[in-house]
Amino acid sequence: MKLKSRFLRQAQDKLFAEFTLSTFEGLRMTAEEIAAALALVALWALWLAVPADGQYRPSNASALQYRYSRVTLLRVVDGDTVRLDIETEPGRMARNRPCRFLRINAPELNQPGGPEAREALASFFKGKRLMVEVRAVDGFGRWLIELWAATGPRPPGSGGDSEAVNVADWMVEHGHAEKL
């Protein structure tokens, strides 16, 4: 009886080994095939990451999606980048934060139209209250933001009567930036 069970176990092991080898033998791939398969997986992952509305949101966007209405403009760096003081909690400030507008690209200061874009943005901010929505952080450590400006008595987004203007949209409408 012992001999029969040992014989059966050896036969099962041999069958399993042959099945395993024959099943995975056809899966041997060249380096080019592996690279192509990885590229397809990467494209599939990117397709999953882009929502139906086409707006790309980095993976850390959900963790950083905050709205703040106590915002002070410190400096306009160029047509799509500003430095802000943002009260993140009562009594806590994110000071001198470099922030870049989402969805647009404005010319750099050393390019044609760059200085004009910065001046237009600086003059647009005069006398306006700001509200910022932080969506993500880019590779340079800048906060990627949507910024709204309003002239009314209450900050935009607080339910007041003030009319808020999206700054990125304003820059595109006035020809100082292009949509991404």
Number of helices: 5
Proportion of residues in β-strands: 25-35%
Helix content: 25-40%
Tally of discrete structural domains: 2
Instruction: Choose one word for the global shape.
Output: elongated
Q: What is the succession of H and E elements? A: HHHEEEEEHEEEHE
Instruction: Determine the N-to-C terminus distance.
Output: 76 Å
CATH architecture of the largest domain: Beta Barrel
Q: Would you identify the regions where 5 or more consecutive residues have pLDDT less than 50?
A: 19-24, 52-63
What structural category arises from helix and sheet content? alpha+beta
Radius of gyration: 28 Å
User: What would the CATH topology of the largest domain be?
Assistant: OB fold (Dihydrolipoamide Acetyltransferase, E2P)
- Describe the largest sheet: 7 strands, mixed
Calculate the mean pLDDT score and round it. 79
Q: What is the β-strand count?
A: 9
